[in-house]
Design brief:
The structure holds two protein chains of two kinds. Chain A is mainly alpha-helical. Helix content of chain A is about 70%, strand content about 5%. A three-stranded antiparallel sheet of chain A has the order 2-1-3. Chain A starts with 9 loop residues before the first helix and ends with a helix. By secondary structure, chain B is an all-alpha fold. Chain B has one domain. Chain B is rod-shaped and about 185 Å long. Classes of the chains: A mainly alpha, B mainly alpha. At the A-B interface, strand 3, helix 2, helix 3, helix 4 and helix 6 of A face helix 1 of B.
Chain lengths: ~280, ~160
């Protein structure tokens, strides 16, 4: 559980914990960040854990959807319906359009991100130790503490927003919006003069969104994970004091971060379909 | 931060999960929930209607009850009147019957008295004759003295 059992120093322990199980796609061999595998490598732990959690989410919700009926909901069905109703009300409050896509998207983001965040509450050494016993030397169990995952989500959202903007306003309308807002002018000369500034501002806005979305989630979860690792470095008889306090606080954070990601996504999509 | 091909892998998985959710999860559950909503709304409306009907029925019942009460008291009053009448009639008949019996009794008594009086009269005459025979110890001319005795009887009568 802590450094006293191994021959690692504190620094090495932390460093070890922040290493992904990296598979180089060029050599098809496990590698480490120190060997600079470059872009063509994948984090197997992030992919596998996030996929397992995603499948868990899809399967458990599908179980309810399969037998969904309008009778009295019980047990798991009740929980699933509560979640969906919560998401649905959030979506309806924000997104004033007809869409069969935004609801499922918001649900997937919220539940999947929550489940991945929840991995942070599992004792930091438990899964890495189990993995190590099967010969895998590095495992990071919190997929959302890997920027690859958060960026994948936020970039996907970026594409969805682009898709919706073009679908609703058309390429012409969307392009026009990019160069004529937020600074407006009635004369065509003014429009031409202002268009570079408008384009610059819009580009900033659209490009900063995925960055802020993903870095917010990544930052929160990375910090949380790091603090759990630091707590694990304390003597065992002190760990429970800080560990419990941080865990309880972290329950709030993981839920909140999943919610924020979901809500901001819905807001961006709502902005995409609304006229300025 | 080491960004790598995981990015693409995750984008694909993310999209697949959204697609799955959109295709197999969300519509069914939302549909079921909407159906339940309608069902509950219908149920509530039906309950409200039932409540309304109940109120109406209660109004009707209390109205009928009041009417029945009035009718019942009317009947009671009529019955009382009728019974009083019957009692009065019975009393009347009884009185008449009594009067009749009394009258009959009076007549009988009178007849009896007359008969007794006659008998007494005859007995007195016989006794007087017998007494006189005893006193005189000799025959008396019945005819001669009958007049005198009749007179005597008339005196007794009075």
């Amino acid at each position: 559980m802590s450094v006293t059992t191994g021959k690692l120093t504190s620094g090495e322990y932390i460093h070890h914990h922040l290493q992904n199980l990296t598979l180089s796609l060029k050599t098809m061999k496990f590698t480490t960040a120190a060997q600079h595998p470059g872009f063509w490598a994948i984090h197997v732990d992030t992919l596998v854990i996030s996929s397992i959690l995603g499948i868990l989410f899809c399967f458990s919700f599908w179980l309810v959807a399969r037998k969904a009926n309008s009778g009295v909901p019980r047990g798991w069905q009740n929980f699933v319906e509560m979640t969906i109703e919560f998401i649905d009300s959030q979506v309806k409050d924000t997104f004033h359009g007809k869409s069969t896509f935004v609801g499922p998207l918001a649900l997937t983001i919220f539940v999947w991100a929550f489940l991945m965040n929840f991995m942070d509450l599992i004792p930091v050494d438990l899964i890495p130790r189990l993995a190590e016993s099967t010969g895998l030397h590095y495992t990071r169990v919190v997929p959302t503490a890997d920027p690859n995952l958060t960026f994948a989500m936020s970039i996907s959202v970026f594409f969805f927003v682009m898709f919706y903007s073009i679908k609703v306003k058309g390429i012409g309308g969307f392009s026009k919006e990019l160069v004529t807002t937020p600074f407006k002018n009635d004369s065509w000369i003014g429009k031409i003069i202002l268009s570079p500034a408008n384009l610059f501002f819009n580009a900033m806005e659209h490009l900063s969104r995925p960055l802020s979305l993903s870095l917010r989630l990544f930052g929160n979860l990375f910090a949380g994970e790091l603090i759990f690792i630091l707590i694990a470095l304390l003597p065992w008889y002190l760990q429970w004091i800080v560990g419990d306090a941080w865990s309880i606080f972290h329950i709030l954070i993981i839920l909140l971060q999943a919610f924020i990601f979901m809500l901001l996504t819905v807001v961006y999509l709502a902005l995409a379909v609304e006229e300025h | 931060m080491n960004l790598n091909a995981t990015l693409f892998g995750q984008m694909i998985t993310f999209t697949i999960f959204i697609w799955f959710c959109m295709k197999f999860v969300w519509p069914y559950i939302v549909k079921a929930m909407e159906e339940r909503e309608t069902k509950i709304a219908d149920g509530l409306a039906a309950a409200e209607r039932g409540q309304h009907d109940l109120e109406l029925a209660q109004h009707r019942i209390s109205k009928q009850f009041r009417e029945a009460k009035v009718k019942a008291s009317d009947i009671i009053v009529q019955a009382q009147q009728r019974s009083n009448q019957i009692i009065e009639e019975a009393q009347q008949r009884a009185r008449e019957e009594g009067d009749r019996l009394i009258a009959v009794a009076h007549t009988e008594i009178e007849q009896e008295r007359q008969r007794a009086k006659q008998k007494l009269r005859r007995d007195t005459v016989d006794l007087a004759i017998y007494g006189a025979e005893k006193i005189l110890e000799r025959d008396i001319d019945d005819a001669a003295h009958a007049q005198m005795f009749d007179k005597l009887i008339a005196e007794i009568d009075d």
